[in-house]
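Sample 1 of the test manifest.
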Amino acid sequence: MTTEAAGAVGGPGWNPAGDLHQLFAYHFMVNAFRAGTVVAVVAGVVGWFMVLRRQSFVGHTLAVVSFPGAAGAIWLGVSATAGAFAGSLAASLVIALVPRSGSGAPSSEESAVIGTVQAFALACGVLFVSLYGGFLDSLTGLLFGTFLGISDSQVVILGAVGVAVLGVLAAIGRPLLFATVDADVAAARRVPVRVLSTVFLVVLGCTAAEVSQITGALLVFALLVMPAAAAQQLTARPAASLALTVLIGLAVTWLALGVAYFSIYPVGFYVTTFGFAAYLLASGARWAVGRAGPIRAGRLRGAPA
Amino acid sequence: MMVLLVAPLSGLAHFLDHPFLRSALLAGTFIAVASGLVGAFVVRRGQVFTGDALSHVAFTGALAALAFGIDLRVGLYGACIVFALLMAFLGRKARADDTVIGSVFAWILGLGALFLSIYTSARSGTGGLEGNAGVNVLFGSIFGLTPTQAVVDSVVAAAVSVALVAIARPLLFASIDEPVASARGVPVRLFGYAFFVLLGITAGEATQVVGALLLLGLLAAPGGAAQRITARPFVALWVSAAIAVASVWAGLALSYAAPRVPPSFGILAVATGCYVAAVGVSSLRAARRRRAGRDTGGPAPAPVAAGISILD
């Protein structure tokens, strides 16, 4: 898939402006950048909350479930995007049924449930692929991401869902942050912790399905976790790290799409590599700052002063 | 399907007529025992996420070996064991949280995608087989095992099972109450490392049965179900192994009866079914106990309460 794109346009030249022009010469590439931008912003914001809530494992599972959703949709002959959303939403509701133990890391019972849901969902994906009968090309695309063939209507769907997700988060952001940082005190102050957590799971499910449209079901972490993890290394102030998360996510996505366009290797590899590099750089910067002066970071994480 | 329903015994004879099914059954059984035993500990120690991370490593290791033209198993076991040790080390040193684990392993999976792409593009034009290599690693190819491979896998799995049973008692102590165990002179660190090595080998083995992406199910579902069924840890160990074996057998039979159903799906479907059934049974039991407690007007019966306080 990527091979065809690279073969059609040739490699990057010495003229950056010419390369940029070439990058946007095709409509599919413009669509890829549009979709990537939407996905990066939504993933950054939701991922920031997810990292704070320590729900990475859940996020990974919800993302993975988009694969059987999409594979089942292709088998049934309906839109793969719709299938991905349906799969992730269904899984987020199943996981919401399991009682959550405070705001810490998941209990062993809970993680067993999540792991089982994840493996079973992937197994269903295999079943759908087998029932549909051999489409190995789109299988790698579903798993490891592709930026080819994103249609105008897909961009519209991604945009609409993205706006809805951001709207919901804007509405519940403050109480959610409160419930995340100290669930017990929030519950005592009559913040509906349980409802908030369910709503957030649904939001997370939508986001995971969105991100999987670009990075593939298996590499959603690249945009969901890595930018947020990098930003939270750099600053502890909520607003600043949220903004930084979105910026890092955008940079990673644009860079990855740009490089993948000229390369024969899958876009998922570039997204994960650039995201991981951002995380390493942020950790290095924090370490350097920590050596230079007293660390003021960590207030959000509840580290002792 | 009909044969199996009408005459189970002759159906079984047919089933065992095929050499590839004999290999699958042999390797599958031993690997299931190992996965069940290890899985019980994975769930008990709350390390399901580690198992998830290892599944990514398994994929990338196997694909890297293929891309560089060496035997798939070398990469598979090598990567799993090295990274299991690394995680045991990091978990001790820096208390790596799930954000770090998640970031590292997402990147490793991305590398796997790169190796898959290198491997497939290096061999393009030779037919559809090389595309299957990636799929086989991801989703398992238990019907593709040769008799020799099956024997090797079985021996390795048996060794893992024996080793785990040998260290089960102190490991359980260390898993349930680490500070007390270490105060009593149990080498907690050593057992942690040993367990991670066994987990890595099991991950490599299970990858060949159900695939890198699904091995988590073979670890978490039997372990989780067993923990629901019984409060006694040693019983849970064997219940977990039994569930895993039953899942593999039933899954293979299902896939044999309905050829369009991949064996990995059959195995995972049965394992998940067992887990759901265990959750149902245990919540029924809990409801009945609660009702009984309310009728007598007293608290729950003492032995049960004691068992729970030990385990949670």
